[in-house]
Design a protein that fits this description.
CATH superfamily of the largest domain: ANL, N-terminal domain
CATH architecture of the largest domain: 3-Layer(aba) Sandwich
Distance between the termini: 54 Å
Oligomer: single chain
Strand content: 15-25%
Number of helices: 17
Helix content: 25-40%
CATH topology of the largest domain: Rossmann fold
Shape: globular
Length: 550
């Protein structure tokens, strides 16, 4: 780093406010421009931003009364709710660290993550009491518990400090949130990787504020398609325990949007909220999108213009076309737990609009980098590869909001940041228009007959068969070729297809030059369902283990 002459550094006047980038600063705008805007939790609670501000202060006062001090870690175990939104602000604003507990992990993994993060206080929804009871005696640092329930008459369990709403009701709605170093850790959570123990990632106030502002500027940049604006109604369909629900609740709040929180996800419940509350902006993984577009209630719901960012895994063109046919404005986003998460958004440049085939291709790409993202595709020597849509390399990245390491795991941290760029372990290409396309995870590429076959590209091709509802492709060992592709296909209700049908479908694409002839699957199986991870991604580790000797 270049040394700067001290005389060139800004020397503020003693009375100047240097404005640290703290999460509390995100509340100024909504309170000034949209104080009466609504925040909705299912059909159970409605209040405005003024009340949100008071409830944030009440939560901070309640936690302070229980002994929470700056630097303490507070774990949250709840479904997507107004309470979760309040914790996104109150906990880090008082200088503590919010741990968003992945409640879909196994009890053993939940125990590991809570102990590893050294959480001191746990806020626990009544639905997770069985998990808490199973692990409570093995908790090392968590000794204080707050009870959460949507039913006021539910009794507070023995050993709990109190019930969430009662504690807030007894606390003052005023709290003097202090200034402190913007590099203070604000949140932590654990990756849902499919190898080894979950890894802890962490983010500072500065990182979360910059991610909020950059993602917001990326979302509001287009003329129309995929554009977020003040009149939108926001509802998350990505768990709030997972990468801050992609950071969108912070963005919705700073913009003063009407916000709708659905609690536990069910397709019927989500679609009912879309109808009742006029939801216009959401985000989810392809699995959830598939559940929505195949639910009969979708035909009784006005989803035209509903903007959805699809991320977490590749968006098959077949699924995307089904959503577009219903009038949804969907497009992909890309990132990972370690990147806070958003790096790219697949919004369509205005000159490229108008051709439905081209638009489908762009919407399902990985997207354009949002502001402040330095994204490269590189070879094994970290040399840049051409942006010709053909040259494939590893995606490496820098931005001001990437996790600076794994919590208490220095060796993995150095591996993550080898060469001064964060390594995504994804392979991708960049076309001349600047759009990134992830072609596969490094560990999921299939090497067959000396040629690399992308499991994602093959999944995309198979998804376009009229009978296919879901598909996953894995590599299985082969004595002659090293590996061969195996396709696991879930058929649409009432549809029929055979192994020969799927192979013929892929062969047609290969003959047209869209995919390698080596991609024609060796085997096609038709399971009733495909294994998913705790956040709805296809669990290829489980699938490989199950079918490795097929």
């Amino acid at each position: 780093m270049t040394t700067i002459n001290p005389d060139n550094l800004i020397q503020p006047t003693p009375s100047a406010y240097t404005y640290p980038l703290l999460i509390k600063q995100l509340l100024h705008t909504p309170l000034a421009v949209a104080p009466d805007q609504e925040i909705v939790y299912r059909d159970l609670k409605r209040f405005n931003y003024r009340t949100l501000n008071h409830r944030i202060a009440q939560l901070a006062n309640a936690l302070s009364a229980l002994g929470v001090r700056p630097g303490d870690t507070i774990g949250m175990m709840d479904w997507d709710s107004h309470r979760y939104l309040e914790s996104y602000f109150a906990v880090p604003m008082m200088g503590a660290v919010l741990m968003t507990v992945n409640v879909r992990l196994s009890p053993e993994q939940i125990l590991y993550t809570i102990n590893h993060a050294e959480a001191k206080v746990l806020l626990v929804n009544v639905e997770f009491m069985p998990v808490l009871e199973e692990i409570k005696d093995k908790l090392e640092t968590a000794k204080t518990f707050i009870f959460i329930s949507d039913i006021p008459s539910d009794p507070v369990p023995a050993g709990f400090a109190g019930e969430y709403e009662a504690l807030l009701h007894a606390a003052s709605p005023h709290y003097d949130f202090p200034d402190f170093d913007e590099n203070t850790r604000a949140t932590t959570f654990y990756t849902t990787g499919t190898t080894g123990l979950p890894k802890g990632v962490f983010f500072s106030h500065r990182q979360l504020v910059l991610h909020t502002l950059s993602t917001m500027s990326g979302l509001t940049a287009p003329l129309s398609q995929g554009r977020l604006h003040r009149d939108d109604v926001y509802m998350p369909i990505t768990p709030m325990f997972h990468v801050h629900a992609w950071g969108m609740p912070y963005i919705a709040t700073v913009m003063g949007l009407r916000q709708v929180y659905p609690g536990r996800y069910t397709p019927d419940g989500l679609l009912a909220l879309v109808r009742q509350e006029g939801v216009t902006f959401s985000h989810c993984v392809p699995t959830i999108l598939h559940m929505l577009v195949t639910n009969p209630a979708i035909h009784d719901t006005n989803v035209k213009g509903w903007k959805l960012i699809i991320g977490g895994s590749a968006l098959p063109k077949g699924l995307a076309q089904s959503a577009l046919n219903l009038g949804m404005d969907l497009f992909t986003g890309y990132g990972m737990s370690e990147t806070c998460p958003i790096l790219t958004l697949a919004q369509i440049k205005t000159p490229l609009m108008g051709d439905p085939i081209r638009e489908l291709e762009i919407r399902t790409k990985t997207g354009l980098p949002i502001p402040l993202v330095d994204l490269r595709i590189v070879d094994e020597n970290m040399e840049d590869l051409p942006h010709d849509g053909k040259a494939a390399g590893e995606i490496v990245v820098r931005s001001p909001w990437l996790t600076q390491g794994y919590y208490k795991n220095p060796s993995a941290s150095e591996e993550l940041w080898s060469g001064g760029y964060l390594h995504t372990n994804d392979i991708g290409v960049i076309d001349p228009e600047g759009y990134l396309q992830v072609t596969d995870r490094i560990k999921d590429v299939i090497k067959t007959g000396g040629e690399w076959v992308s499991s994602l590209e093959l999944e995309d091709v198979i998804s376009r068969h009229a009978a296919v509802s879901e598909v996953a492709v894995i590599g299985i060992k082969d004595a002659k070729w090293g590996e061969r592709p195996m396709a696991l296909v879930v058929l649409k209700s009432g549809a029929t297809a055979t192994e020969a049908d799927i192979k013929a479908h892929v062969k047609a694409f290969a003959e047209e030059g869209h995919i390698s002839k080596f991609a024609i699957p060796e085997h096609v199986l038709f399971p009733p369902a495909i294994d998913k991870t705790s956040v709805g991604k296809i669990n290829k580790k489980n699938l490989r283990a199950r079918y490795e000797n097929a």
